Amino acid sequence: MLMGDKNHINIECIECCGKNLYIGTNDCFIYHFMLDEKVSTSGKVTFAATKQLHKYLGFKKPVNELKAASALTRLLVLCDNTITLVNMMNLEPVPTGARIKGAVTFTLNENPVSGDPFCVEVCIISVKRRTIQMFMVFEDRVQIVKEVVTPEQPCAVAVDGYYLCLALTTQYIILNYNTGISQDLFPYCSEEKRPIVKRIGRQEFLLAGPGGLGMFATVDGISQRAPVHWSENVIGAALCFPYVVALDEEFITVHSMLDQQQKQTLPFKEGHILQDFEGKVIVATNKGVYILVPLPLEKQIQDLLASHRVEEALVLAKGARRNIPKEKFQVMYKRILQQAGFIQFAQLQFLEAKELFRSGQLDVRELISLYPFLLPTSSSFIRSHPPLHEYADLNQLTQGDQEKMIKCKRFLMSYLNEVRSTEVANGYKEDIDTALLKLYAEANHESLLDLLVSENFCLLTDSAAWLEKHKKYFALGLLYHYNGQDAAALQLWVQIVDGDIEDSTRSDLYEYVVDFLTFCSDRDLVWKYSEWVLQKNEEVGVQIFTKRPSEEQEKNINPDDIISCLNKYPKARIKYLEHLVLERKIEKEKYHTHLAALYLEAILQLKSGTTDNCVETVELLLKLRSLLQKSDLYRIHFILDKIRGTDLHMESAILYGKLEEHEKALHILVHELKDFGAAEEYCVWNSENRDLQYRRRLFHMLLSVYLRADTSDCALVMAAVDLLNNHAAEFDAALVLQLVPDSWSVQLLSPFLSGAVRQSIHTKRMTQVALGLAQAENLIYKYEKVKHKGTPILLSDKKVCQVCQNPFCEPAFVRYPNGGMVHTHCAASRHLNSSVTPHSSRSSSET
Asked: Engineered SS bond to 247: which of 34, 192, 274, 275, CB 3.0-4.6 Å?
């Protein structure tokens, strides 16, 4: 369409603005084409070019550069070192003939500083040596703004605001033409290779560096991206974010700005122009123009995912953020993360998969649905469409490899356990917990029980069937309990304990059932299984009554009913009565008497038996004695009648003591048991919380028992002497001296006598001290009284009452401790009203 039969015509430059394509040739012609973009049903993009017109400029020189200024509907044409302004539509020069002369090359400032929407800023490399000029171009005129001298001859230039990126003869620099400050970038020999300077974004440029590197540089002279590796002989570069497209003599190469990798290579010979225009990348040879059409970013990402190039796909997706609306990008990016997660999952890269699933906010049911039978039968979940992966289920993904399948199930267990308490689980808690229960049960995992005893949303029907299938009967009982079906739970556990069904989860299941019944609030259920637990072990089984919470015991179950139930289980009955009497401290005569009688029966039964149960007998005796000593509620005569005729002398003595028949009690201890230590202890515990006289009476009574006997009994004599010497403070020395035989020596009773004298002297001295303190206190009171009486009080008719403010007419008055004086009747009325009127009370306190 350009050359017809003229082979000498070559393409020198191109410009594209919207649908308008302009081509400049070596024979000084400008051609205008309209591009028509079409998309086929398969998604392929094609362009049709329609020639509009052409224009000969009349210089007989090639057209070197074309730049469109769409805001002005002007095309800037460089030919024969002159920039001419022509109309974009008819290619006619502007009537005013406005032009810029002496330009070697030029570029437009895409980040203008003037702020005028009806002008463009143009930067030219002047034919003057080492000179850059800045112009403002309007619709029909041009205006020079700045002329800048450069250190070396410039070869190429790009502009951003006030910043010029220049390729000089030996190096690249950044120059601020407003301030004149320059920043060296890196050296480069323009004589050996063609320099490339291209603005790729706000305050950032792409440069052809040494060693076949495409270098990125900002206006601050730093690089924020790693360089791309392209050909040593690169001719041109274009930007199609996030890619840099490079052209050399044989190829077009595509490089990612995100990871700096070369992504594509297209064979292309004889190319000499490569430029980008508003998202279009156009490449040209001397004879033809070609448009490079990028695949949609989503298609590129999906292709990378299909090739399992996950990292590249994610990098590309992140980089695409700037070109896609925010909401659309978020939806797209989440889906990409989810797809990438399934790819990593299929490769057993579980840590990476987990992070991708989390970041992509994956509907966890997508993952659960890969595992056969894990989703509840009632779940209405349907997989995403289009699908996030290519697998029907886990069997297809692992190709039947059991080891891989186990690893996948372990991962799902871990993942579900982590997400079940997060926002990810909202709305899907039943599906998650049911799936987790099934995985735990199948793997015999220890966390199964933890799941069931904590808050969970496992569906009963699905979960129960699954637990029964895997013979997890104890866990099934926990599930029933969590869902309020305690009867079903207990029935299962009882069957396990009885051996009707097998489940070795807990070796202490009987104790667990007892504990469960202990805290069970269903009274009927407790009664139903009470016989069973007591038959198994009555001492452990009775805990269902003894360890119940106190509020439950008081409200739900009558102790009398329990005692009736325990009649067949003597040990359990004793345990329960001990609980009532000793732990709950219930003060009812019948429980105390019953417990004492049961102790007594058990002791007598053990004593009458042939087997040696000495330890058990002693334990029961100690319990009986403790009860008889500490309790005042049992029927003493009833127990005493039961003891008569037995060898339980100590118990008889305790009972006589409770009846205040101390002489009988002491007689038993001294003459029948001959336990002198017990006799002394009897006096001590019987006189607890009693006055000193009562205590002395008991000890004197014991001494009389010792001395009333045959004095030839040395044991009793020594017991009497020891009693006196060890408890001197408990006796009245004068009475003792009257009782003891005259034959006893002073030396024999010296400890007693010393103690008695010491106690007498101590008592005397303490009395003297108390008397002295009382006298001192009395003296203080007397002093205070004298002090108050000794101060003279002067009263005259000039003094006024502090209450009524009237003078005193008679010598009778009342004086307050602070010296204030009032009438007697004022003081009386004030005192009367002080409790009624707060004001009077306050006044009194202030007087």
From this structure: 274
Residues 706 and 764 in one domain: yes
The three state secondary structure string of 424-490 is: HHCCCHHHHHHHHHHHHHHHCCCHHHHHHHCCCCCCHHHHHHHHHHCCCHHHHHHHHHHCCCHHHHH
Single pTM value for the model: 0.61
Which of 236-250, 707-721, 794-808 has the weakest average pLDDT? 707-721
Report the mean per-residue pLDDT for the chain: 87
- What's the domain range around 799? 794-847
Per the CB < 8 A criterion, the answer to whether 282 and 17 are in contact is no
Polymer length of the chain:
847
Domain boundary among 712, 734, 768: 768
CB atoms within 10 A of CB 365: 20
* Alpha-carbon span 231 to 213, nearest angstrom: 8
Pair (680, 818) in one structural domain = no
What's the pLDDT tens digit per position in 308-367?
787 878 877 777 777 677 888 888 888 889 999 999 999 999 999 999 999 999 999 999
- The C-alpha atoms of residue 782 and residue 776 are separated, in whole angstroms, by 10
ω into 242 cis (within 30 of 0)? yes
pLDDT confidence band for 552 (50 / 70 / 90): low
Compute the distance between CA of residue 309 and CA of residue 194 in angstroms, rounded to an integer.
Answer: 36
Strand order of the β-sheet with 213-218 is 197-201, 204-209, 213-218, 228-229
pLDDT the model gives residue 509? 94
User: Does any domain span residue 824?
Assistant: yes
- In the chain, how many domains are there? 4
- Indicate the residue among 442, 469, 496 that finishes a domain: 469
Same domain, 85 and 193: yes
Question: What three-state secondary structure class fits 163?
Answer: strand
Query: Residue 413 has what pLDDT?
Result: 94
The Cα angle at residue 389 between residues 388 and 390, in degrees rounded to 5: 140
Whether omega for the bond prior to residue 838 falls within 30 degrees of 0, making it cis, is no
Paired sense of beta strands 142-149 and 156-160, if any: unpaired
Q: Verify that 65 and 119 share a domain, yes or no.
A: yes
Residues 691 and 839 in one domain: no
Is residue 264 classed as helix, strand or coil in its secondary structure? strand
Amino acid sitting at position 267: P
pLDDT tens-digit readout, 132-144? 999 999 988 999 9
- Do 490 and 529 meet the contact criterion of CB atoms below 8 Å apart? yes
The C-alpha angle 732, 733, 738, rounded to 5 degrees, equals 105
Query: Does one domain contain both 187 and 280?
Result: yes
User: Could you give the CA distance from residue 184 to residue 175 in angstroms, rounded to a whole number?
Assistant: 9
Same domain assignment for residues 67 and 176:
yes
Tell me: do 684 and 829 sit in the same domain: no
Q: Which residue has the tokens 């039961």?
A: 642
- Tokens at 521, concatenated: 């609030």
Report the C-alpha dihedral over residues 340, 343, 345, 348, rounded to 10 degrees: -130
Averaged over 485-514, what is the pLDDT? Answer: 94
The answer as to whether 167 is a domain residue is yes
The 10s digit of each residue's pLDDT in 771-803 is 999 999 999 998 887 877 766 778 888 889 988
SS3 198: strand
Q: What is the pLDDT of residues 26-38, one digit of tens each?
A: 889 999 999 888 8
In angstroms, the CA 141 to CA 118 distance is 11
Which residue from 302, 415, 412 is spatially nearest to 355, judged by alpha carbons? 415
Interior/surface letters 605-620, b for 16+ CB within 10 angstroms, e for the rest:
ebeeeeeeeeeebeeb
Any long-range contacts for 712-715 (C-beta under 8 Å, 24+ apart)? 715/674, 715/676
CA dist 430 → 354, 358, 376, 471, 524 (Å): 21, 19, 8, 22, 32
CA count, 13 A, side-chain hemisphere, 780: 6
pLDDT score of 525: 92
Q: 492 in a domain, yes or no?
A: no
